[in-house]
Amino acid sequence: EAQVTQNPRYLITVTGKKLTVTCSQNMNHEYMSWYRQDPGLGLRQIYYSMNVEVTDKGDVPEGYKVSRKEKRNFPLILESPSPNQTSLYFCASSLWAGGDYNEQFFGPGTRLTVL
Amino acid sequence: QKEVEQNSGPLSVPEGAIASLNCTYSDRGSQSFFWYRQYSGKSPELIMFIYSNGDKEDGRFTAQLNKASQYVSLLIRDSQPSDSATYLCAVKTGNQFYFGTGTSLTVIP
Most exposed residue of A110, B70, B78, B89, measured as fewest CB within 10 angstroms of its CB? Predict the structure, then answer.
């Protein structure tokens, strides 16, 4: 089944404790992206990757890191989480970012709470 | 700052009616436009995309794009209770995607 998977689905942590949220897709997509969704603010792009070893900042990259060492995986790293990073996080992928048609497939989401 | 604006709603329509959802965007360089549906607690799923001026129809859904006015809309004909969800407008500009805050739609049986 073609899908985007994220782990964990739910996470409660404390300020300053490094964490990684994994994202994996099995569709051989070139483009992958991380979003956070907050009430009243909508979905905001954190980082995106055009292909292996190619990553770029989105609108809200502060406090986050990413890496793209393999095509299928795009982990999101919070090296020192803070309470303002409490949010619902989505990973998404699309075949590529060029051209006009870029359907993004979203993962199931990770609900993160930072105390 | 690239902005995508939507009325947050809530929008309520009776079953069988037409629901009209609107979206404006600020960057004239935006290339492609998408409508996603998001049920509560779920991830967004694509309903329609459009990149040329005019109308695009897919079943009960019609997307309309007016680049001169920087305006995108989604019409849902014969609305069903299962259409009750939040509808997200998304815009592709360069290699990035920008989303509106969503419009909550309730279809009343």
Answer: B78
* B-interface mutation test, from A56, A104, A105, A111, most B Cβ less than 10 A away: A104
Strands annotated E in B1-109: 4-6, 11-14, 19-25, 32-38, 45-50, 54-58, 61-66, 71-76, 85-93, 96-99, 103-108
* Residue pLDDT, tens place only, B76-107: 999 999 999 999 999 998 889 999 999 999 99
Minimal C-alpha gap between B29 and chain A (Å): 12
Q: Write the pLDDT tens digit of every residue in A51-86.
A: 999 999 999 999 999 999 999 999 999 999 999 999
